[in-house]
Amino acid sequence: MRILEIVSGVTACGATVHTLQIAKELHRRGNMITLMGKPGAWVLEQARAAGVPTLESRMKRLPLRDLRAAAQFVRENRIEALLAHMSGANNFAVWLSRLTKTPAVLRAHAHTVHFHWRMAHHIIAVSEQTRRYHITHNLVPPSRISTVHGFVDPARLIVPDKGARAAVRAELGLSPADFVVGVIGNIIPRKGQIYLIRALPQVVARYPHVRVLLVGVVHPPRYGEQVRREAERLGVAQHVLWLGERKDVPRLLQALDLYALPTLSDMLPMAMLEAMWAELPILATFAGGDPRSDNRRRGRMAGSPQKPRSVSKRADRNPREPRRARPPCPQCTPAGARVVHSATASRKN
Questions:
Q1: Domain boundary among 123, 147, 171
Q2: What pLDDT score does 327 carry?
Q3: Whole-model pTM above 0.70?
């Protein structure tokens, strides 16, 4: 099948990682897939390295130059379907669909009210909660939206270096005795990093060796400053490491003892699935796309992230012993990793 996959994200994030995985798998299965992205986008660099054909576009609707160029590509390459991810790409895809009479399928990674959802031929939601949201808020007919959960790429997550845990900790200035909590995802208000910071004093008071890694792009900058000021006000700034955007997340996961997701709203975060695959205990709120995806046997559901006591009560249950690094495999993984492995395997077949 001839497919033009479109994504508007520039940096590495859950949606762009997921887009890349789909592009690579469609390419592997013999489809004529081309990935369209913005100039300099991380996902295009990765796709080219994997042998997936790419196309650059600014995806501006006005003036019509970008739409006309994309329409010419669609016609010349006899594209049969458009598959779009993220708001800018979704918007661009539905107008491109109208211009070329090519079906547009949108991947719903977000809870947003927008007219483009109604213009799509079909929508694929990453969680059942997301599917219900678009039926209720965007009035999408149930027959035009389905749920296909996110998945991980095991090949991307396997770290063959058995010394990666110690090496990463040394690079970050962490000691073997530190209990390391990772929050991976763009540092934005919706992700709720500030609520974990507000819960941290109660944890640190009992376990002073706790360290929190904040991994991701800060947007907007004023939110990052707000989180920094809050950490300083509460006297826990020295327990928080700001790592910014990282392209070695699989290595970072090896250094963690706990993955935290203090989100106010999320669909089905890729970072949490990857943490489950890496056998990490999960501290998450009920605000995710599907709480059942959390590793209940090793995870801790924190309820409302806006209640520091609720978060800290679960975060400080037992941060005494750093976990031992173990290579993930279907035979030895605990419940969460087995869930992700089974789901991933089913999508490969």
A1: 147
A2: 40
A3: yes
